[in-house]
Recover the amino acids of this structure.
């Protein structure tokens, strides 16, 4: 006899939830780049192909807990080493990243287990004030007006800059940059040992 849980799992795995989320994000991924996109969205320019790496699994579901303490220097170094790799929505590394997976992977290298999504990351970590920012802190932005904020995350690296999965992974000046300042949502600190 098939259990109710099995029916739910089969139903969700064959649903188009991932397809809907993927299409919505591809429509607006260019907005993450701000002025560098020339005001165009991918719909007006060229939509990227659906990533081959994207996989919707229950194993990536967050259980609500941040685990470990890490070294921000390791997380920052890892994120910086990914510069030039493409933004791929839903990718979890090493050939490409989306914004939250880059943060998750960088901090995993430093010894901390973070949740997978931007929304869960900001919810799980202690908020700090903008004046307290130090390298390794996560900075959150609202880049897609149609979705609940935050919709983008980067890692503060000092000197008013962040490393983030733009397209490609790059370093961007955020403090003092009118575009990024206007969509800034908050900042949070990852546990450090």
């Amino acid at each position: 006899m098939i259990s109710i849980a099995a029916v739910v799992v089969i139903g969700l795995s064959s649903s188009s939830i991932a397809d809907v989320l993927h299409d919505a994000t591809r429509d607006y991924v260019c907005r993450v780049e701000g002025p560098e996109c020339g005001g165009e969205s991918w719909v007006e320019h060229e939509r990227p192909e659906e990533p081959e790496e994207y996989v919707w699994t229950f194993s990536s579901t967050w259980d609500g807990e941040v685990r470990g303490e890490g070294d921000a220097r390791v997380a920052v170094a890892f994120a910086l080493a990914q510069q030039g790799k493409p933004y791929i929505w839903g990718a979890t590394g090493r050939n490409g990243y989306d914004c939250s997976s880059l943060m998750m992977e960088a901090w995993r290298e430093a010894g901390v287990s973070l949740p997978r999504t931007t929304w869960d990351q900001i919810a799980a970590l202690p908020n700090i004030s903008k004046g307290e920012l130090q390298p390794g802190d996560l900075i959150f932005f609202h880049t897609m007006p149609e979705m609940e904020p935050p919709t983008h995350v980067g890692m503060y690296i000092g000197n008013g800059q962040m490393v983030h999965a733009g397209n490609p992974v790059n370093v961007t000046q955020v403090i003092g940059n009118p575009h990024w300042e206007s969509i800034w949502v908050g900042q949070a600190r990852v546990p450090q040992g």
About this structure: Confidence is low (pLDDT under 50) at residues 1-60.
